[in-house]
Protein backbone atom coordinates (compact mmCIF):
# COMPACT_ATOMS: atom_id res chain seq x y z
CA UNK A 1 0.00 0.00 0.00
CA UNK A 2 1.22 3.46 -0.86
CA UNK A 3 1.55 5.79 2.13
CA UNK A 4 -0.94 8.14 0.53
CA UNK A 5 -3.56 5.44 1.03
CA UNK A 6 -2.64 4.72 4.63
CA UNK A 7 -4.32 5.70 7.86
CA UNK A 8 -1.93 6.59 10.64
CA UNK A 9 -2.57 6.08 14.33
CA UNK A 10 -0.51 8.02 16.85
CA UNK A 11 0.44 6.35 20.11
CA UNK A 12 1.64 8.34 23.08
CA UNK A 13 3.40 5.41 24.75
CA UNK A 14 3.38 6.81 28.27
CA UNK A 15 -0.39 6.87 28.22
CA UNK A 16 -1.39 3.97 26.03
CA UNK A 17 -1.20 0.81 28.10
CA UNK A 18 0.87 -0.13 31.12
CA UNK A 19 1.74 -3.82 31.07
CA UNK A 20 4.24 -3.92 33.94
CA UNK A 21 2.17 -1.96 36.44
CA UNK A 22 4.46 0.96 37.22
CA UNK A 23 1.90 3.59 36.23
CA UNK A 24 3.64 4.39 32.94
CA UNK A 25 2.66 2.89 29.59
CA UNK A 26 5.22 0.68 27.86
CA UNK A 27 6.11 -1.26 24.72
CA UNK A 28 4.70 -4.51 26.08
CA UNK A 29 1.48 -2.63 26.66
CA UNK A 30 1.39 -1.68 22.99
CA UNK A 31 2.14 -5.26 21.98
CA UNK A 32 -0.90 -6.38 23.97
CA UNK A 33 -3.10 -4.02 21.97
CA UNK A 34 -1.86 -4.78 18.46
CA UNK A 35 -4.91 -6.88 17.66
CA UNK A 36 -7.08 -3.99 18.76
CA UNK A 37 -5.24 -1.61 16.43
CA UNK A 38 -5.30 -4.04 13.56
CA UNK A 39 -9.01 -4.58 14.05
CA UNK A 40 -9.55 -0.81 14.03
CA UNK A 41 -8.09 -0.89 10.53
CA UNK A 42 -5.17 1.52 10.83
CA UNK A 43 -2.04 0.94 8.75
CA UNK A 44 0.83 2.90 10.25
CA UNK A 45 1.56 3.32 13.94
CA UNK A 46 3.51 6.41 14.91
CA UNK A 47 5.08 6.20 18.34
CA UNK A 48 5.91 9.39 20.19
CA UNK A 49 9.51 9.10 21.45
CA UNK A 50 10.47 5.81 23.08
CA UNK A 51 14.13 6.61 23.65
CA UNK A 52 16.16 7.11 26.77
CA UNK A 53 15.25 10.46 28.26
CA UNK A 54 15.11 12.26 31.59
CA UNK A 55 11.58 13.25 30.56
CA UNK A 56 11.79 16.99 30.96
CA UNK A 57 9.41 17.02 27.98
CA UNK A 58 8.21 13.43 28.16
CA UNK A 59 10.72 11.92 25.79
CA UNK A 60 11.08 14.89 23.44
CA UNK A 61 14.38 15.42 25.27
CA UNK A 62 16.49 12.45 24.27
CA UNK A 63 19.66 11.45 26.09
CA UNK A 64 20.40 8.37 23.95
CA UNK A 65 18.84 7.98 20.52
CA UNK A 66 19.68 4.31 20.30
CA UNK A 67 18.48 3.12 23.67
CA UNK A 68 14.92 2.43 24.78
CA UNK A 69 13.57 4.41 27.70
CA UNK A 70 13.83 1.91 30.60
CA UNK A 71 10.27 2.60 31.79
CA UNK A 72 9.06 1.53 28.33
CA UNK A 73 11.08 -1.68 28.14
CA UNK A 74 14.11 -3.09 26.40
CA UNK A 75 15.38 -3.38 22.87
CA UNK A 76 14.02 -6.95 22.77
CA UNK A 77 10.57 -5.60 23.49
CA UNK A 78 11.00 -3.15 20.66
CA UNK A 79 11.97 -5.91 18.25
CA UNK A 80 8.99 -7.95 19.36
CA UNK A 81 6.73 -4.96 18.85
CA UNK A 82 8.09 -4.29 15.39
CA UNK A 83 7.71 -7.93 14.44
CA UNK A 84 4.15 -7.99 15.75
CA UNK A 85 3.26 -4.86 13.78
CA UNK A 86 4.73 -6.26 10.59
CA UNK A 87 3.12 -9.67 11.05
CA UNK A 88 -0.24 -7.94 11.07
CA UNK A 89 0.54 -6.11 7.87
CA UNK A 90 0.99 -2.74 9.57
CA UNK A 91 3.96 -0.40 9.68
CA UNK A 92 5.76 1.36 12.50
CA UNK A 93 7.28 4.82 12.45
CA UNK A 94 9.33 6.53 15.11
CA UNK A 95 9.60 10.11 16.27
CA UNK A 96 12.79 11.78 15.06
CA UNK A 97 13.62 14.57 17.50
CA UNK A 98 16.78 16.16 16.17
CA UNK A 99 16.27 19.88 16.51
CA UNK A 100 17.50 19.38 20.06
CA UNK A 101 18.60 16.66 22.42
CA UNK A 102 18.50 16.38 26.17
CA UNK A 103 21.15 18.27 28.14
CA UNK A 104 21.90 14.82 29.58
CA UNK A 105 22.98 13.49 26.18
CA UNK A 106 26.70 12.64 26.21
CA UNK A 107 27.20 15.05 23.29
CA UNK A 108 26.01 17.93 25.40
CA UNK A 109 27.87 16.77 28.47
CA UNK A 110 31.03 16.95 26.35
CA UNK A 111 30.04 20.11 24.58
CA UNK A 112 29.66 22.17 27.71
CA UNK A 113 33.07 21.16 29.09
CA UNK A 114 35.24 23.55 27.10
CA UNK A 115 35.26 25.67 23.99
CA UNK A 116 37.80 23.33 22.47
CA UNK A 117 35.89 20.13 23.10
CA UNK A 118 35.29 18.20 19.84
CA UNK A 119 31.56 18.23 20.64
CA UNK A 120 31.43 21.97 21.26
CA UNK A 121 29.96 22.63 17.83
CA UNK A 122 27.28 20.00 18.17
CA UNK A 123 25.28 22.72 19.93
CA UNK A 124 24.79 26.45 19.51
CA UNK A 125 26.94 28.48 21.87
CA UNK A 126 27.30 32.25 21.87
CA UNK A 127 29.17 34.72 24.03
CA UNK A 128 27.08 37.12 26.13
CA UNK A 129 26.10 40.36 24.45
CA UNK A 130 26.41 43.39 26.71
CA UNK A 131 26.44 41.02 29.64
CA UNK A 132 23.23 39.25 28.71
CA UNK A 133 21.54 36.88 26.22
CA UNK A 134 22.95 37.01 22.67
CA UNK A 135 19.54 38.05 21.32
CA UNK A 136 15.95 38.53 22.43
CA UNK A 137 14.58 35.13 21.38
CA UNK A 138 12.02 33.50 23.62
CA UNK A 139 11.60 29.83 24.41
CA UNK A 140 8.40 27.95 23.62
CA UNK A 141 8.30 26.97 27.22
CA UNK A 142 8.59 30.48 28.75
CA UNK A 143 11.57 32.69 29.39
CA UNK A 144 14.55 33.41 27.13
CA UNK A 145 15.73 30.85 24.58
CA UNK A 146 19.30 31.13 25.89
CA UNK A 147 20.76 29.63 29.02
CA UNK A 148 24.00 30.79 30.54
CA UNK A 149 26.48 28.07 31.39
CA UNK A 150 29.10 28.89 34.04
CA UNK A 151 31.64 26.36 32.87
CA UNK A 152 32.64 28.28 29.75
CA UNK A 153 30.87 31.57 30.38
CA UNK A 154 28.68 31.29 27.26
CA UNK A 155 25.02 30.83 26.47
CA UNK A 156 23.49 27.85 24.66
CA UNK A 157 20.35 28.07 22.60
CA UNK A 158 17.23 26.12 23.58
CA UNK A 159 14.06 26.92 21.69
CA UNK A 160 12.23 24.58 24.04
CA UNK A 161 12.99 23.81 27.70
CA UNK A 162 16.38 24.54 29.27
CA UNK A 163 16.96 20.82 29.27
CA UNK A 164 16.53 20.72 25.47
CA UNK A 165 19.61 22.37 23.94
CA UNK A 166 19.34 22.93 20.19
CA UNK A 167 21.64 20.87 18.00
CA UNK A 168 23.85 22.70 15.55
CA UNK A 169 22.88 21.57 12.04
CA UNK A 170 25.52 23.82 10.53
CA UNK A 171 28.00 21.20 11.71
CA UNK A 172 28.37 18.42 9.10
CA UNK A 173 29.62 16.01 11.76
CA UNK A 174 26.41 16.37 13.70
CA UNK A 175 24.39 15.81 10.56
CA UNK A 176 26.27 12.61 9.75
CA UNK A 177 25.79 11.45 13.32
CA UNK A 178 22.02 11.93 12.96
CA UNK A 179 21.94 10.12 9.61
CA UNK A 180 23.80 7.16 11.11
CA UNK A 181 21.27 7.03 13.90
CA UNK A 182 18.40 7.08 11.41
CA UNK A 183 20.05 4.23 9.52
CA UNK A 184 20.37 2.27 12.73
CA UNK A 185 16.59 2.28 13.15
CA UNK A 186 15.81 1.78 9.48
CA UNK A 187 18.19 -1.18 9.35
CA UNK A 188 16.37 -2.57 12.33
CA UNK A 189 13.21 -2.50 10.25
CA UNK A 190 11.31 0.63 11.13
CA UNK A 191 9.23 2.09 8.33
CA UNK A 192 9.95 5.77 8.65
CA UNK A 193 9.84 8.82 10.85
CA UNK A 194 7.63 11.59 12.06
CA UNK A 195 10.04 14.51 12.27
CA UNK A 196 9.73 16.81 15.23
CA UNK A 197 9.75 20.61 14.54
CA UNK A 198 11.65 19.89 11.38
CA UNK A 199 11.49 23.44 9.91
CA UNK A 200 13.62 24.64 12.86
CA UNK A 201 16.79 22.72 11.99
CA UNK A 202 18.28 25.64 10.13
CA UNK A 203 18.71 28.92 11.99
CA UNK A 204 19.71 32.32 10.75
CA UNK A 205 23.45 32.26 11.65
CA UNK A 206 23.35 35.98 12.40
CA UNK A 207 20.85 35.34 15.22
CA UNK A 208 19.13 38.69 14.73
CA UNK A 209 16.83 40.12 17.38
CA UNK A 210 13.12 39.70 16.82
CA UNK A 211 11.63 42.70 15.10
CA UNK A 212 9.67 44.43 17.84
CA UNK A 213 6.35 44.19 15.99
CA UNK A 214 6.67 40.40 15.87
CA UNK A 215 8.13 39.96 19.30
CA UNK A 216 7.31 36.52 20.63
CA UNK A 217 6.18 35.19 17.25
CA UNK A 218 7.71 31.75 17.47
CA UNK A 219 7.11 30.95 13.81
CA UNK A 220 10.09 33.21 13.10
CA UNK A 221 12.32 30.28 13.99
CA UNK A 222 11.03 28.20 11.13
CA UNK A 223 12.25 27.79 7.55
CA UNK A 224 15.83 28.92 8.09
CA UNK A 225 18.16 29.59 5.16
CA UNK A 226 19.59 26.07 4.83
CA UNK A 227 16.55 23.98 5.74
CA UNK A 228 15.95 22.62 2.25
CA UNK A 229 19.61 21.87 1.73
CA UNK A 230 19.64 19.85 4.97
CA UNK A 231 16.48 17.94 4.13
CA UNK A 232 17.69 17.15 0.62
CA UNK A 233 20.91 15.87 2.07
CA UNK A 234 19.02 13.73 4.59
CA UNK A 235 16.85 12.44 1.80
CA UNK A 236 19.81 11.61 -0.42
CA UNK A 237 21.92 10.01 2.31
CA UNK A 238 19.18 8.19 4.19
CA UNK A 239 15.52 8.34 3.23
CA UNK A 240 15.88 7.59 -0.48
CA UNK A 241 17.84 4.45 0.31
CA UNK A 242 15.02 2.81 2.22
CA UNK A 243 11.40 1.99 1.67
CA UNK A 244 10.20 4.41 4.29
CA UNK A 245 7.85 7.30 4.90
CA UNK A 246 8.71 10.75 6.27
CA UNK A 247 6.25 13.12 7.89
CA UNK A 248 7.31 16.60 8.89
CA UNK A 249 5.83 18.42 11.84
CA UNK A 250 5.42 21.68 9.96
CA UNK A 251 5.44 24.24 12.72
CA UNK A 252 5.81 27.64 11.09
CA UNK A 253 5.28 26.34 7.56
CA UNK A 254 2.66 28.37 5.73
CA UNK A 255 0.55 26.94 2.94
CA UNK A 256 2.30 29.00 0.26
CA UNK A 257 5.69 27.41 0.98
CA UNK A 258 4.55 23.90 1.93
CA UNK A 259 5.41 22.35 -1.40
CA UNK A 260 9.02 23.36 -0.92
CA UNK A 261 9.04 20.59 1.68
CA UNK A 262 6.78 18.04 0.04
CA UNK A 263 6.42 18.92 -3.64
CA UNK A 264 7.18 16.04 -5.95
CA UNK A 265 10.68 16.33 -7.33
CA UNK A 266 11.90 18.23 -4.26
CA UNK A 267 13.32 15.06 -2.70
CA UNK A 268 12.68 16.20 0.83
CA UNK A 269 9.71 14.83 2.79
CA UNK A 270 6.69 12.74 1.82
CA UNK A 271 4.19 14.82 3.75
CA UNK A 272 3.86 17.55 6.28
CA UNK A 273 1.28 18.63 8.81
CA UNK A 274 0.53 22.24 9.55
CA UNK A 275 -0.52 24.19 12.62
CA UNK A 276 -3.08 26.53 11.13
CA UNK A 277 -5.96 24.87 12.96
CA UNK A 278 -4.00 23.87 16.06
CA UNK A 279 -4.61 25.51 19.41
CA UNK A 280 -2.07 28.31 19.87
CA UNK A 281 -0.16 27.86 23.08
CA UNK A 282 2.23 30.79 23.14
CA UNK A 283 2.58 31.80 26.75
CA UNK A 284 -0.04 34.55 26.68
CA UNK A 285 -2.66 31.98 25.67
CA UNK A 286 -2.46 30.53 29.16
CA UNK A 287 -4.21 33.63 30.44
CA UNK A 288 -5.90 34.94 27.32
CA UNK A 289 -6.62 31.94 25.16
CA UNK A 290 -7.61 32.57 21.59
CA UNK A 291 -11.30 31.97 20.89
CA UNK A 292 -11.97 28.68 19.10
CA UNK A 293 -12.15 28.86 15.31
CA UNK A 294 -15.58 29.70 13.97
CA UNK A 295 -16.44 27.13 11.30
CA UNK A 296 -15.84 29.39 8.26
CA UNK A 297 -12.32 30.08 9.50
CA UNK A 298 -11.66 26.42 10.08
CA UNK A 299 -12.87 25.60 6.58
CA UNK A 300 -10.74 28.39 5.16
CA UNK A 301 -7.69 26.68 6.66
CA UNK A 302 -8.54 23.36 5.03
CA UNK A 303 -9.39 25.06 1.73
CA UNK A 304 -6.18 27.06 1.70
CA UNK A 305 -4.01 24.04 2.37
CA UNK A 306 -5.71 21.80 -0.09
CA UNK A 307 -5.39 24.41 -2.81
CA UNK A 308 -1.76 25.10 -2.01
CA UNK A 309 -0.57 21.51 -1.85
CA UNK A 310 -2.95 20.38 -4.60
CA UNK A 311 -1.59 17.33 -6.43
CA UNK A 312 1.99 18.60 -6.30
CA UNK A 313 2.73 17.62 -2.75
CA UNK A 314 0.93 15.78 0.00
CA UNK A 315 -0.25 16.57 3.49
CA UNK A 316 -0.86 14.72 6.68
CA UNK A 317 -4.22 15.68 8.17
CA UNK A 318 -5.17 15.53 11.83
CA UNK A 319 -7.48 16.98 14.43
CA UNK A 320 -5.82 15.72 17.57
CA UNK A 321 -2.33 14.90 18.74
CA UNK A 322 -0.31 14.99 21.94
CA UNK A 323 0.12 18.77 21.61
CA UNK A 324 -3.54 19.73 21.35
CA UNK A 325 -6.57 19.44 23.59
CA UNK A 326 -9.14 16.81 22.58
CA UNK A 327 -10.91 17.50 19.33
CA UNK A 328 -14.39 16.57 20.56
CA UNK A 329 -13.97 19.12 23.36
CA UNK A 330 -12.96 21.75 20.83
CA UNK A 331 -15.54 21.31 18.10
CA UNK A 332 -18.09 18.89 19.49
CA UNK A 333 -20.60 18.75 22.32
CA UNK A 334 -19.29 16.36 24.93
CA UNK A 335 -22.41 16.50 27.06
CA UNK A 336 -25.45 16.27 24.80
CA UNK A 337 -24.02 14.89 21.56
CA UNK A 338 -20.84 13.10 22.44
CA UNK A 339 -21.22 10.23 20.01
CA UNK A 340 -22.72 12.36 17.24
CA UNK A 341 -20.05 15.01 17.38
CA UNK A 342 -17.13 12.59 17.73
CA UNK A 343 -18.33 10.61 14.71
CA UNK A 344 -19.01 13.76 12.70
CA UNK A 345 -15.44 14.92 13.28
CA UNK A 346 -14.11 11.50 12.30
CA UNK A 347 -16.11 11.71 9.09
CA UNK A 348 -14.46 14.98 8.16
CA UNK A 349 -10.97 13.85 9.10
CA UNK A 350 -11.21 10.68 7.07
CA UNK A 351 -12.64 12.31 3.97
CA UNK A 352 -10.34 15.32 3.58
CA UNK A 353 -7.56 14.99 1.04
CA UNK A 354 -4.37 13.84 2.75
CA UNK A 355 -3.16 10.97 4.90
CA UNK A 356 -5.10 11.15 8.17
CA UNK A 357 -3.65 10.58 11.61
CA UNK A 358 -6.01 9.43 14.31
CA UNK A 359 -4.72 10.30 17.76
CA UNK A 360 -5.05 7.60 20.41
CA UNK A 361 -8.37 7.79 22.21
CA UNK A 362 -10.06 9.89 19.56
CA UNK A 363 -11.48 6.67 18.15
CA UNK A 364 -13.59 6.46 21.33
CA UNK A 365 -14.13 10.21 21.59
CA UNK A 366 -11.94 10.85 24.63
CA UNK A 367 -12.49 14.35 26.01
CA UNK A 368 -10.59 17.03 27.87
CA UNK A 369 -10.19 16.36 31.56
CA UNK A 370 -10.78 18.78 34.42
CA UNK A 371 -7.49 19.63 36.12
CA UNK A 372 -8.21 21.09 39.54
CA UNK A 373 -4.85 22.58 40.39
CA UNK A 374 -1.49 23.21 38.78
CA UNK A 375 -0.15 20.15 40.62
CA UNK A 376 -2.40 17.88 38.60
CA UNK A 377 -0.70 18.98 35.40
CA UNK A 378 2.52 17.34 34.25
CA UNK A 379 3.53 19.19 31.10
CA UNK A 380 6.64 21.38 31.26
CA UNK A 381 4.92 23.96 29.09
CA UNK A 382 1.99 24.52 31.42
CA UNK A 383 4.14 24.43 34.52
CA UNK A 384 6.64 26.93 33.18
CA UNK A 385 3.85 29.21 32.02
CA UNK A 386 2.36 29.03 35.52
CA UNK A 387 5.67 30.07 37.05
CA UNK A 388 6.01 32.96 34.64
CA UNK A 389 2.44 34.20 34.83
CA UNK A 390 0.97 33.24 38.18
CA UNK A 391 3.79 32.48 40.62
CA UNK A 392 5.35 35.79 39.56
CA UNK A 393 2.16 37.57 40.62
CA UNK A 394 1.20 38.83 37.15
CA UNK A 395 -2.12 36.99 36.76
CA UNK A 396 -4.57 35.31 39.12
CA UNK A 397 -4.41 31.53 39.37
CA UNK A 398 -8.12 31.19 38.50
CA UNK A 399 -7.65 32.91 35.17
CA UNK A 400 -4.70 30.68 34.37
CA UNK A 401 -6.50 27.48 35.38
CA UNK A 402 -9.52 28.36 33.26
CA UNK A 403 -7.31 28.84 30.22
CA UNK A 404 -5.14 25.81 30.89
CA UNK A 405 -8.26 23.71 31.23
CA UNK A 406 -9.00 24.65 27.65
CA UNK A 407 -5.63 24.56 25.92
CA UNK A 408 -3.13 22.45 27.89
CA UNK A 409 -1.44 19.54 26.16
CA UNK A 410 -2.10 17.25 29.12
CA UNK A 411 -5.72 16.88 27.98
CA UNK A 412 -4.47 14.63 25.22
CA UNK A 413 -2.10 12.78 27.49
CA UNK A 414 -4.41 11.34 30.13
CA UNK A 415 -4.30 7.55 30.10
CA UNK A 416 -6.16 5.66 27.41
CA UNK A 417 -9.56 4.45 28.61
CA UNK A 418 -9.83 0.72 28.03
CA UNK A 419 -12.34 -0.55 30.58
CA UNK A 420 -14.81 0.61 33.15
CA UNK A 421 -12.55 -0.44 36.00
CA UNK A 422 -10.22 1.47 38.24
CA UNK A 423 -7.60 3.44 36.28
CA UNK A 424 -9.67 2.72 33.19
CA UNK A 425 -7.75 -0.51 32.71
CA UNK A 426 -4.68 1.50 31.71
CA UNK A 427 -2.68 0.14 34.62
CA UNK A 428 -3.19 -2.10 37.61
CA UNK A 429 -5.92 -0.92 39.94
CA UNK A 430 -3.68 -0.17 42.92
CA UNK A 431 -1.18 1.90 40.98
CA UNK A 432 -1.20 5.70 40.66
CA UNK A 433 -0.83 6.50 36.95
CA UNK A 434 1.72 9.13 35.94
CA UNK A 435 -1.09 11.48 34.89
CA UNK A 436 -4.64 11.51 36.18
CA UNK A 437 -7.23 9.35 34.48
CA UNK A 438 -10.22 11.22 33.14
CA UNK A 439 -13.08 10.28 35.49
CA UNK A 440 -15.43 9.85 32.54
CA UNK A 441 -13.80 6.49 31.77
CA UNK A 442 -16.82 4.76 33.25
CA UNK A 443 -18.87 5.87 30.26
CA UNK A 444 -16.18 6.45 27.63
CA UNK A 445 -14.07 3.33 27.25
CA UNK A 446 -13.07 0.80 24.62
CA UNK A 447 -14.78 -2.23 26.15
CA UNK A 448 -18.17 -0.53 26.30
CA UNK A 449 -17.84 0.75 22.76
CA UNK A 450 -16.78 -2.58 21.34
CA UNK A 451 -20.15 -4.08 22.21
CA UNK A 452 -22.30 -1.07 21.27
CA UNK A 453 -22.98 -1.24 17.53
CA UNK A 454 -23.41 2.52 17.13
CA UNK A 455 -20.43 3.56 19.21
CA UNK A 456 -17.76 6.06 18.17
CA UNK A 457 -15.35 3.13 17.94
CA UNK A 458 -17.50 1.02 15.65
CA UNK A 459 -18.23 4.03 13.50
CA UNK A 460 -14.48 4.52 13.08
CA UNK A 461 -14.07 0.91 12.03
CA UNK A 462 -16.83 1.15 9.45
CA UNK A 463 -15.61 4.46 8.14
CA UNK A 464 -12.03 3.23 7.85
CA UNK A 465 -13.16 0.14 5.96
CA UNK A 466 -15.30 2.24 3.66
CA UNK A 467 -12.50 4.71 3.00
CA UNK A 468 -10.15 1.90 2.09
CA UNK A 469 -12.33 0.73 -0.73
CA UNK A 470 -13.00 4.24 -1.98
CA UNK A 471 -10.02 5.57 -3.97
CA UNK A 472 -11.70 8.96 -4.43
CA UNK A 473 -11.10 9.61 -0.71
CA UNK A 474 -7.38 9.39 -1.39
CA UNK A 475 -6.85 10.54 -4.92
CA UNK A 476 -9.97 12.60 -5.59
CA UNK A 477 -9.94 16.37 -5.84
CA UNK A 478 -11.46 18.44 -3.05
CA UNK A 479 -13.85 21.36 -3.37
CA UNK A 480 -15.56 23.27 -0.57
CA UNK A 481 -19.14 23.96 -1.66
CA UNK A 482 -20.25 26.28 1.14
CA UNK A 483 -17.19 28.10 2.47
CA UNK A 484 -19.22 30.77 4.27
CA UNK A 485 -21.89 28.61 5.86
CA UNK A 486 -21.67 29.11 9.63
CA UNK A 487 -22.79 25.60 10.63
CA UNK A 488 -22.30 23.21 7.75
CA UNK A 489 -19.16 21.91 6.11
CA UNK A 490 -20.04 20.56 2.69
CA UNK A 491 -17.38 19.45 0.28
CA UNK A 492 -17.00 17.31 -2.75
CA UNK A 493 -14.40 14.67 -3.55
CA UNK A 494 -14.18 13.74 -7.17
CA UNK A 495 -12.19 11.10 -9.02
CA UNK A 496 -13.02 10.13 -12.59
CA UNK A 497 -16.63 8.88 -12.55
CA UNK A 498 -16.81 8.84 -8.78
CA UNK A 499 -18.27 11.82 -6.96
CA UNK A 500 -18.90 12.15 -3.26
CA UNK A 501 -20.52 14.87 -1.24
CA UNK A 502 -19.61 15.10 2.41
CA UNK A 503 -21.89 17.18 4.62
CA UNK A 504 -21.15 17.74 8.28
CA UNK A 505 -23.20 19.73 10.73
CA UNK A 506 -20.84 21.41 13.19
CA UNK A 507 -23.73 22.69 15.31
CA UNK A 508 -26.07 21.29 17.92
CA UNK A 509 -29.08 22.60 15.96
CA UNK A 510 -31.06 21.12 13.13
CA UNK A 511 -29.72 22.84 10.04
CA UNK A 512 -31.33 22.92 6.66
CA UNK A 513 -29.55 22.29 3.43
CA UNK A 514 -31.13 22.14 0.01
CA UNK A 515 -29.45 19.21 -1.68
CA UNK A 516 -29.62 19.49 -5.48
CA UNK A 517 -32.52 17.31 -6.63
CA UNK A 518 -31.27 16.92 -10.14
CA UNK A 519 -28.85 14.29 -8.96
CA UNK A 520 -29.53 10.79 -7.84
CA UNK A 521 -28.11 10.41 -4.40
CA UNK A 522 -27.26 7.48 -2.33
CA UNK A 523 -26.02 7.70 1.22
CA UNK A 524 -22.70 5.87 1.49
CA UNK A 525 -22.00 6.58 5.16
CA UNK A 526 -23.80 8.45 7.89
CA UNK A 527 -23.53 8.83 11.64
CA UNK A 528 -27.32 8.84 12.12
CA UNK A 529 -30.03 6.44 10.98
CA UNK A 530 -31.21 7.28 7.45
CA UNK A 531 -33.32 10.43 7.40
CA UNK A 532 -37.07 10.29 6.73
CA UNK A 533 -37.81 11.08 3.08
CA UNK A 534 -39.36 14.45 3.87
CA UNK A 535 -36.60 15.32 6.30
CA UNK A 536 -33.77 14.79 3.92
CA UNK A 537 -32.82 18.42 3.85
CA UNK A 538 -32.49 18.72 7.61
CA UNK A 539 -29.14 17.87 9.09
CA UNK A 540 -29.61 16.84 12.71
CA UNK A 541 -27.21 18.00 15.48
CA UNK A 542 -23.68 17.04 14.43
CA UNK A 543 -25.02 14.84 11.68
CA UNK A 544 -22.58 13.80 8.97
CA UNK A 545 -23.52 12.17 5.69
CA UNK A 546 -21.48 11.00 2.78
CA UNK A 547 -23.45 10.96 -0.46
CA UNK A 548 -22.36 9.21 -3.56
CA UNK A 549 -23.53 10.16 -7.02
C1 LIG B 1 7.08 19.12 19.02
C2 LIG B 1 6.43 18.02 19.81
C3 LIG B 1 6.16 18.52 21.19
C4 LIG B 1 7.48 18.87 21.83
C5 LIG B 1 8.28 19.84 20.97
C6 LIG B 1 9.71 19.84 21.39
O1 LIG B 1 6.24 20.21 18.86
O2 LIG B 1 5.29 17.56 19.15
O3 LIG B 1 5.46 17.60 21.97
O4 LIG B 1 7.28 19.44 23.09
O5 LIG B 1 8.28 19.48 19.61
O6 LIG B 1 10.32 18.63 21.04
CATH class of the largest domain: Alpha Beta
Strand content: 15-25%
Q: Classify the helix fraction into a percent range.
A: 25-40%
CATH superfamily of the largest domain: Glycosidases
Could you say which structural class the secondary elements and strand pairing correspond to? alpha/beta
**Low-confidence spans: pLDDT under 50, at least 5 residues?**
none
Question: Quick one: biggest sheet?
Answer: 8 strands, parallel
Average pLDDT level: 96
The CATH architecture designation of the largest domain is Alpha-Beta Barrel
CATH topology of the largest domain: TIM Barrel
Principal-axes geometry comes out as globular
Rounded to the nearest angstrom, the radius of gyration is 23 Å
**Termini separation (Å)?**
27 Å
How do the strands line up in the largest sheet?
11-10-9-5-2-1-13-12
The number of domains is 3
Hetero groups bound? alpha-D-glucopyranose
Number of strands: 20
Protein name: Alpha-glucosidase
Domain Glycosyl hydrolase family 13 catalytic: 10-413
Keywords: Hydrolase
Structure description:
The chain is α/β, with parallel strands linked by helices. The protein has 3 domains: 3-103 and 167-460, TIM Barrel (Alpha-Beta Barrel); 106-157, Oligo-1,6-glucosidase, Domain 2 (Oligo-1,6-glucosidase, domain 2), CATH 3.90.400.10; 474-548, Sandwich (Immunoglobulin-like), CATH 2.60.40. Helix content is 27%, strand content 15%. It contains 16 helices and 20 strands. The chain has an 8-stranded parallel β-sheet with strand order 11-10-9-5-2-1-13-12. The protein has a 5-stranded antiparallel β-sheet with strand order 14-15-16-20-18. The chain has a 3-stranded antiparallel β-sheet with strand order 6-8-7, with no helix packed on it. The mean pLDDT is 96. The structure holds alpha-D-glucopyranose. Alpha-D-glucopyranose (GLC) is lined by residues 57, 60, 97, 160, 196-197, 249, 322-323. Residues 10-413 form the Glycosyl hydrolase family 13 catalytic domain. It holds the Pfam family Malt_amylase_C.
